[in-house]
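Long-time lurker. I teach an intro course on protein structure, and each term I like to show students one example going from raw sequence to a predicted 3D structure in C-alpha cell notation. This year I'd like something fresh instead of my usual example. Would anyone be willing to generate the C-alpha cells for the chain below so I can use it in lecture? Attribution to the forum is fine with me.
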Amino acid sequence: MTAEAGSFSEAAPAARTVKAKQTLGGRLAGAVSGGLVRVFLIVVALFWLVPTIGLLLSSLRSPEDMAAGGWWNVFSKPSQLTFDSYQKLLENSDITNSLLNTVLITVPATVLVVVVGSLAGYAFAWMEFPGRDWWFLGVVSLLVVPVQVALIPIAELFGKLGLFGTIFGVILFHVGFGLPFAVFLLRNFFAEIPRELLEAARLDGAGELRLFARVVMPLGGPAIASLGIFQFLWVWNDMLVALVFTKSGTQPITVALQTQVRQFGNNVDVLAPGAFISMVIPLAVFFAFQRQFVSGVMAGAVK
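-- Reply from a regular --
Happy to contribute to a lecture. Here you go:
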C-alpha cells in the first residue's frame, strides 16, 4: 500500500507537469478544431457566394431597377423581383443556341478525355509494351505546352481539313489538350492499386478489358470523377479557344455573352440571366460531385 501511494504521489506531479506543458497547445488545437473555425469557414463560404447571389438577384430585376441602384436594394424592395429577363433570354435565339452549343462541346470533350485517359492511364500503369516509360515521358512533356502556342498552327490545320469553325474541331482541340493531364493523373492513381489484386483477377481468367472494367474503374472512381470535374469546368468556362475556333453558328455561351456586350452594351436584361445560367451549371456539377472530387484529391495522401 505504501509503495502504491508512493508511486501515485510521484506520478501525480509528472502528470501535472505534462498537462501544464500541453495546456497552450491543447487550447490552440481545441480552438482550431472547435466552432470558431467552423464559423470562420462559413463566413468565407458566404463571401465566396456573394457574386453568385448578386448575379442571381440582378438577373431577377428590370433594367430600370438595375440602373437605379445595386442588387442589394432587393432586400428592401422585394417587388423588384421578376422573371421577365429570363423570358427575354429564352426569346433570344443567339443565347439559347449558344447554350446548346456549349453542351454539345463540353459533354463529348469531357467524356472522351475521361474514357481515353482512363484507358491510356491503365496501359501505362500495368501493361508492358516497348518504350512504355519513354512514351509516358512524352505525354507528360506535353503538359508544359501552352494553349496559346498551338492556336495558330492548329487553326491552319483545321482550315485545311475543313474543321475550322465547327463544333467537332473545338471538341478535338479540348480533347487533345486535356489528355496529357488526364493520362498523367490516372496513371499515377492506377499505379497505386495493389498488384496482388490484379494478379488474382487474372488468375480467375479476367482479360485486360474485363480487368479494367470490373476492377480498375470501380477503384479509380474518385480520380475519374475529379478528372471529369476539372475537364468539364475547363471546357465550359473556356473562351479563348472558342473565340478562335468557332464562328457565328457554333459559338458557346461565353463567346455569345461577349458578343452581346460588344453589340448591345446596355442589354443587361439578357446578359445578367445568361451569365447566371452560365455560372450556375458548373457550380451545380461541382457540388453534385463534391464528395468524389475530395476523395480523388486526397487519394494517395494517406497510405
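Some talking points for your students: Residues 59 and 272 are 5 Å apart (CA to CA). The chain is about 80% helix and 0% strand.
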